Known about the structure:
Blueprint: H1 8-11, H2 15-36, H3 42-71, H4 80-99, H5 111-132, H6 148-172
Helix pairs in contact: 2-3, 3-4, 3-5, 3-6, 5-6
Amino acid sequence: MGSQTLASDNFFAYLTIQSNLAFAVVTIVAGVMALRHPRDPVWLTSLRALVLSWTVTAGLAFSIIVWQAGVRGIPITVPWSDVVLHYVLPALSVVAWLIGPGRRAVSWRVLPFVLLYPLIWGVFTIWRGRIIGWYPYYFLDPRQVSGLPEMAVSCLAALSIFAVVGSLLVLLSRVRVTLPPWGEISSRPSAPVRRRRAPAWRRPVHPGR
């Protein structure tokens, strides 16, 4: 946070930060809904697919950026906070998406909305970068790449990753991974309990017998 590029106005300009903030809010809402209803409503499952696609893609994009920066001779340190934000959180989120008992199947109509946010964010970020002279990611800056053609190719590649991740999440929503209930040892019914007959001296005495 001591860097000038990580001032508050620039810090929240990162797609990673915005998408993970949205993910945190949706996760809290989903947790509250899970305590009240056995299954998620359709709108919540679609919303989870949206933010999860952005979060996973942001993690993949971060890995590519770190790799490309190393190739270009630009060292990027990856502290534990970045590891949690870009690697651990997306991985655990995908696992939760697979085994979540209340999740519904997602419609393919969610894919255009998956691309809508990065498109709006990208146009705004490029416009803002031309004004303030700063870009959150190097491939959006024509000065750090070979020019507009390479920048356009990089943006199309990023959108393609969003589309692929969103499609995979839709496909995974149609896969149901069931886990046995906690504490269950065997699915076979237990043997009936045989009741012991009371001793003769404890049996009730009926008149006339």
